[in-house]
Automatic annotation (TrEMBL):
Keywords: Cell membrane, Membrane, Transmembrane, Transmembrane helix. GO terms for cellular component: ATP-binding cassette (ABC) transporter complex. GO terms for biological process: lipopolysaccharide transport; transmembrane transport. It is a multi-pass membrane protein. It comes from Trinickia dinghuensis. This is LPS export ABC transporter permease LptG. InterPro entries: LptG, LptG/LptF_permease. It is found in: Cell membrane.
């Protein structure tokens, strides 16, 4: 790396670390205040609140990194402009294109760090944070429905070769990924109800099997039609029901705790791997996937917002001190970063409402700000 690139990198990285921790500390304070409403319920003490908020810090890092990169780069270039350092670099032969390429090289490690936090550290710490809270409160997770969460499960490989469609109702998902108050409705390929199975609890055993306990299995067998043609009797049963009670039962299913864990973590905070698996599950069961596809594409493209923010910051190095003091430039950078986050979130909702393609919805905010950055560079280069 050239001498001026090392100088740029050292200045940007030092400012980036300071701004990242400053912003994360501010969010930590606000998140902790928000958690105080829950302190005192059950065993949820102040220490648990601090631990929960601390475990959410990696996700805050993930959200803040592009904005921190923008502000730190603007601060560095504004300082250089104020001290005429950047002017000396330009007089020495540093062109706008060379400066842009050097800045993008500086941003590549930040992109990799963003991917690592968003894919490895963040989802795990968020799930752990939610479990800490739930275990302290002694509560469970369930959907907004009073009956719990409903999941469609299609089993394509059965002993007799027939496809089985299940609708699984989970009353509660406990923090340790065990399930309670389970009801399973099985249908044959003609969508006729063939089995109703209820269980008190269930635990995932691995290899696609759940161990259900306290099971009541009701097998429904359709009766042959009567030999004589008589009007149908409403009181005459169509099915014969055979009920068996079992202490435990091993159920083969395509569902996994990772699929059910979407109740613990919002789609935007899930890893791309878990999002991809859940989208596959929804596709196999012919369910809507747009919300999760948008989240997947945002996770894929969001780290590159660091490079977009760095492009936006470079024009500030061409503005002399008389065009605005350093503080004003930094404030402008904060406003730019906040507007990017707002538009990014807005496009997710608008794209979901208008059923836009997920790649377009996720990429449009970044492309808009990239165009603004390149237009700004072209303008300052001319003037």
């Amino acid at each position: 790396m050239r001498i001026y690139e090392r100088y740029f990198a050292r200045q940007v990285y030092l400012a980036f670390i300071f701004i990242l921790f400053a912003f994360s500390g501010l969010f930590f304070f606000f998140d902790l205040i928000n958690e105080l409403n829950t302190v005192g319920h059950g065993n949820y003490k102040f220490g648990y609140a601090v631990l929960r908020v601390a475990l959410q810090t990696p996700s805050r890092f993930y959200e803040i990194i592009p904005v921190a990169a923008l502000i730190s780069a603007i601060y560095v270039f504004a300082q250089m402009a104020a001290n005429s350092e950047y002017t000396i670099f330009r007089v020495s032969g540093l062109s706008t294109g060379q400066a842009l390429r050097s800045l993008l090289k500086i941003g590549i490690p930040l992109v990799l760090v963003t991917y690592f936090i968003g894919e490895v550290v963040g989802p795990y710490s968020d799930q752990l944070s939610e479990r800490v809270r739930l275990e302290a409160l002694g509560s469970a997770v369930s959907s907004n429905f009073q009956s719990g969460v409903w999941v469609k499960d299609t089993l394509t490989e059965r002993e007799d070769g027939q496809q089985v469609t299940r609708f699984v109702n989970v009353g509660e998902l406990m923090p340790d990924a065990t399930i309670t108050n389970v009801r399973i409705y099985e249908f044959d390929p003609g969508f006729r109800l063939t089995n109703l199975r209820t269980a008190q609890t269930g635990r995932y055993e691995g290899n696609g099997h759940w161990l259900l306990k306290g099971v009541t299995d009701t097998q429904l067998t359709s009766l042959p039609p009567p030999a004589q043609k008589t009007p149908a009797d409403a009181l005459n049963p169509v099915y014969r029901a055979t009920q068996v009670t079992l202490p435990q039962y091993s159920l083969r299913s395509e569902l996994t705790p990772q699929i059910l864990s979407v109740l613990l973590v919002a789609p935007d905070r899930m890893s791309m791997y878990n999002l991809f698996r859940y989208i596959q599950h929804l596709v196999e069961n012919h369910q809507d996937t747009q919300r999760y596809e948008i989240a997947l594409w945002k996770k894929l493209l969001y780290p590159f917002a660091v490079l977009v923010m760095l492009v936006l910051s470079l024009p500030f190095g061409y503005l002399h001190t008389r065009a605005g003091v350093v503080g004003v430039k930094v404030f402008g950078g904060i406003m730019l970063g906040m507007s990017f986050q707002l538009i990014n979130t807005l496009f997710s909702h608008v794209g979901m409402l208008n059923t836009w393609p997920a790649p377009v919805t996720a990429a449009t905010p970044g492309l808009i700000y990239l165009a603004l950055g390149l237009a700004g560079l072209k303008w300052v280069d001319r003037h």
